[in-house]
Amino acid sequence: MKSNRILANITGFVAIIASFIFCSTAFAECEGPCAGQTNIAASNKLNKLGHREYDRFNYIGAATYYSKAIELNPRLTLAYACRGDCYHLMGDCARAISDLNKAIELDPSDADLLADRAAEKLHLHDNPGALADFDAAIKMGQDHYFIHCSRAKLRLQMEDFNGAIADCDKGLAQFPQTAALYWCRGEAYEALGNLPEALLDYSKAIEIHPTHLGGYEKRAFVNFKMGDIAGGICDFVHSRIDDFPSLPTALLIVLCLEILEFTPAIIEVKSCLR
After folding, report:
1. CA distance 18 to 86
2. Which domain holds residue 12?
3. How much of the chain exceeds pLDDT 70, in percent?
4. CATH code at position 60
5. What backbone torsions phi and psi does residue 108 show, to the nearest 5 degrees?
6. Does residue 73 sit within a domain?
7. 173-221 pLDDT, tens per residue?
8. Is the pTM of this model over 0.70?
9. Who is most buried in 98, 123, 215, 245, counting CB within 10 A?
């Protein structure tokens, strides 16, 4: 226990020293080349140093440089956006949104910033706010696959099933081999009662991503609803393979039938096993 406390103290001390070095380096590197130049030029240099640390996956160091750049030039949109990305990667969505708010205030025509803020709002479960940002970004002409994919999943959660299908269609038009969009559209079709289309989408998703066992369970229940009991049982058993890797196939089938409460089928299978 004592060694753990010593290690924790050393780690904390190293973190403090590292932060001091980052700040000192920022000014040291600007005092020479940037001496006599305007604050804007100095802030741009600090911003580039932030990019350097970002590329090294040193997000704390990068955020430190971006903060110093903002101190010198409070209207540097890119520094707010980049620091917000650092906060996102460090798991601080609230601060990321705060920086994105400022970046959008400075450049309200940047659709990418709106899409980034929408993604942050999703992490904070602000679905209406995220939807508004996605809508605004698309109205500005941002037609990227990422936006349609994200908004499709959001619309599905908000039970806007037709809207989810429309976004999935647009996303699949750009990237037709995206299993996640077929899952999403299949769920929307299933919720609307269009089981044949749901079955087609689930099957396509499984074709693209056959190791995603949860997809077999989705298709299993659509098969059951459509009266294909054998197909449903087959898919359901497949979805449970990883849960019981050492169980013989025949016993796994019986277990799945018990889970599904298919009593007549259990009796029939057990009689065949005797």
Report:
1. 17
2. 1-106
3. 74
4. 1.25.40.10
5. -70, -5
6. yes
7. 999 999 999 999 999 999 999 999 999 999 999 999 988 888 888 998 8
8. no
9. 215
